[in-house]
Amino acid sequence: MTQSQSSSSSSSSHYDVIVVGLGALGAATLYQLSQRGVRVLGIDQFSPPHDQGSSHGDSRITRLAVGEGDEYVPFVQRSHAIWRELEARTGKPLMTTTGGLILAPRDRVAEHHGKSDFVRRTIACAERFGIAHEVLDAAGIRTRFPQFHLQGDEIGYYEHDAGFVRPEDAIGAQLAVARASGARTLTGERVLAVESVGNGDTVCVRTGSASFTADRAVVAAGAWLPAFLGAQARADWQADFSVHRQVMHWFDTGSATADFAPGRFPIFIWMFGDGPEDYMYGFPSSDPSQPALKVATEQYVAATTPDTIDRTVSAEETAAMYRERVAGRFPQIGGRALKARACMYTVTPDRRFVIDALDGLPRVLIASACSGHGFKHSAGLGEAIADHVLDRPSEFDLRPFARQRLLEKAPA
Ligand SMILES: Cc1cc2nc3c(=O)[nH]c(=O)nc-3n(C[C@H](O)[C@H](O)[C@H](O)COP(=O)(O)OP(=O)(O)OC[C@H]3O[C@@H](n4cnc5c(N)ncnc54)[C@H](O)[C@@H]3O)c2cc1C
After folding, report:
1. Backbone φ and ψ of 178, nearest 5°
2. What pLDDT does 274 receive?
3. Which atom belonging to ligand 1 lies closest to the Cα atom of 375?
4. Mutation test of ligand 1: which of 55, 232, 366 has the most ligand atoms closer than 8 Å to its C-beta?
5. Residue ID of nearest Cα to ligand 1 atom 28
6. What structural domains does the chain harbor?
7. Checking DSSP bridges between strand 292-296 and strand 279-283, what pairing results, if any?
8. Are the CB atoms for 99 and 133 separated by under 8 Å?
9. Do the beta carbons of residue 122 and residue 102 sit within 8 Å?
10. Interval between CA 101 and ligand 1 midpoint (Å)
11. Which residue ranges of the chain lie beneath pLDDT 50?
């Protein structure tokens, strides 16, 4: 059992807001609340940053033109500004601008074909928001990035300000500044229930060893959200989320290390086939002491839970990743793997976020921003959520993430 630890600037057990879960979204929310001079408590079952949830593995892609939908753009734009502010405040590098390349076969993009249509949607989004970009053909990509071995029929969207964020450091920085600003955190303590007490104007958050009250609660439980909703007897909400194991692989860049360093190599998303898994994304080397090409793909077929997931990655999984996706596309990369890690996506049916009050418990905000693309928005979302739960005006619109849309789309 994990030792429970508390950091506190206040002995009171009533708070303005309690944040359950201090991963990407919870840490961002706690940080923003701590900057608004309110009494805030954050609780996590582990000691974030940690490698048990969805926010580990050295790097997360960030890009400003969000092919997943225009409603996300203000959040990633604000996140970039917040990470730069945090870098200045903590002296820690959090975000590296490398440029980003999203590429697919031109005919599939033109035909709005499956996953490849993401390139077209990204270009359209960049044009609408005036985001600096170039559209490259295969020759243009080859000239700039000879590391990619192309078929010759590709089209590429290149965004200058894309790059990667360091998830563990971003979470750690937000928690450190939040604590220094007076937020209390309790780690190694699992929240068992969140209930309404009094006249319905107070929320009680129960762990195995203590209870705390607050005016509002934010539940940012990541992959544990389905279990949390189950424990709250909310099978209706629980059914909207599924958890999927994903694997990240780091391949040794060997003698090509300089070619895969930030500055020479961009983050990339590469669609090369018809199936949803016929693609990979990747990163330049983020750790000079262990230079590597980090790559991953996605799977939505097999579901899992945080308690049953296989966290080990077999040698065969890494060999298959190399054989089926990396070999032939990056001729300079051999098959020597430096490490591999499993991680979890918490996915909704339309692969969009759910940030909404739990009906029946209007003072409890469920905040699930994953479906595989949440980190880049997390800092901005934390700011929007903080203002939302404090009933303060905000320039951000969280309504696109209301759960109602899933009910409207559900089959009769
Ligand atoms: C392999 C992989 C690659 C990804 N790549 C990208 C990318 O390139 N770009 C991008 O933008 N996004 C990416 N994502 C998505 C992004 O990482 C997630 O959207 C984000 O990390 C989710 O953050 P979270 O706060 O919801 O969950 P987490 O960071 O996992 O935090 C949840 C926290 O809640 C705590 N918790 C849960 N239940 C309880 C409880 N009952 N009591 C106390 N504490 C509790 C957990 O311990 C955990 O700390 C990727 C995700 C994965 C897995």
Report:
1. -60, -50
2. 72
3. 11
4. 55
5. 23
6. 5-56+167-241+351-409 (3.50.50.60), 96-163+242-347 (3.30.9.10)
7. antiparallel
8. no
9. yes
10. 24
11. 1-2, 9-11, 412
